[in-house]
Amino acid sequence: xxxxxxxRLATTTSANDTGLLGALKTAFESSNPxxxxxxxxxxxxxxxxxxxxHGADVTLTHxxxxxxxxxxCHILKCRKHIFYNQFVFVGGGDGYxxxxxxxxxxxxxxxxxxxxxxxxxxxxxxxxxxxxxxGTNARENEIWEALGIxxxxxxxxxxxxxxxxxxxxxxxxxxxxxxxxxxAFTLSDDGTYYKFELIKxxxxxxxxxxxxxxxxxxxxxxxxxxxxxxxxLVNPCVAQGNFAGAEAFFSWMFGDExxxxxxxxxxxxxxxxxxxxxxxEEPDSPFLRMLYRLRQQRxxx
Length: 301
Hints:
Blueprint: E1 6-11, H1 13-17, H2 20-31, E2 36-41, H3 44-52, E3 58-61, H4 64-72, E4 76-92, H5 112-121, E5 126-129, H6 135-147, E6 157-159, H7 168-179, E7 184-189, H8 190-200, E8 207-208, E9 226-234, H9 236-239, H10 243-253, H11 256-264, E10 275-276, H12 286-300
Parallel strand pairs: 1-2, 1-3, 5-6, 5-7
Antiparallel strand pairs: 3-9, 4-7, 4-8, 4-9, 4-10
Helix pairs in contact: 2-11, 6-12
């Protein structure tokens, strides 16, 4: 296959680890036999860095602030929302059980900011940070910034990257191993957690602690939980790659075939892992503008 027929997709690990991208790749190549889709799974920050450094034709990421910055400086040519799932706080170990006074250190059905506050107040609770500029790591940092807490001074933050493998499944595996000996928690998207739960079976020591919206409801009462994924074309002046192939994949992703795959995809779990919302795009919102401000505050510190 000629390199001119290869479409380089730099992508978040969650869409790949759950198996969704494998299903989409098979269907896209079947409908577009001219092209081969090369999936490059990285954290969203690294995937977008790859676009900056001429290594991708199209991206699938969930880091809206960073995507917006690259749109502004014309690294990305265009961006469209494609699907979302939920950020969830997961963990295990005795630390989330009620204390001697009956007050839970990490309760059930808490909103995300309350979970992060509990980590800051209780040094006995270990928090595993991916520390890799992924979309999940970006949301973690946004929450800390909104709370006015500097995680760099907390003694109970265990930073994975670059010492440990990056990726959400790897972070969950590491957190699970810690939970065998001490209370340990991390931030995940629910789709990857459900896949992890399926893979680990009875050896899974983790559970979701934060609030989860159960279908058929689609309203997320916690704005911090919204985990929006978007597809972006890399400006051909930057990528110098296969822009025609990237446009073909971009268009296909917003057609009926891709939509049907996404809306039905469970990855073998009892849950649909991603919610298609390409027809409900809100390119700007007060919450998103707040995220931009928080990122600028963090950069200046």
